[in-house]
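Renewal narrative, Specific Aim 1. Our central claim is that a sequence can be written position by position from structural information alone. The example that follows is taken directly from our test logs and has not been curated for this report. It begins with the structure tokens describing the chain, in the order in which they were read.
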């Protein structure tokens, strides 16, 4: 169908956007990774404290809103996310 990525979420609970269903979790993310034929973008409730399992489960990218946008120091929050992603084996 010409898609260049698949979005998966919400991985964790999020107040940013109501999705009308419970979080999908890491186990479902792994299943999605196995099924996806394109890059998999994880979204929903991801922050520096819980991003590592998302990367380790095979997400090709993460999408964050509140983790950076609502942070007291957005630049520091983004830098911490970069560190967590790299330490979990992800690429920046």
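The sequence written for that structure reads:
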């Amino acid at each position: 169908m010409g898609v260049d990525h698949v979005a998966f979420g919400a991985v964790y609970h999020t107040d940013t956007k109501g999705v009308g269903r419970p979080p999908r979790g890491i186990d479902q993310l792994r299943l999605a990774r196995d099924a996806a034929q394109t890059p998999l973008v994880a979204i929903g409730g991801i922050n520096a404290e819980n991003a590592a399992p998302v990367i380790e489960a095979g997400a090709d990218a993460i999408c964050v809103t509140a983790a950076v946008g609502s942070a007291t120091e957005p630049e520091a929050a983004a830098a911490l996310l970069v560190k967590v992603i790299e330490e979990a084996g992800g690429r920046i």
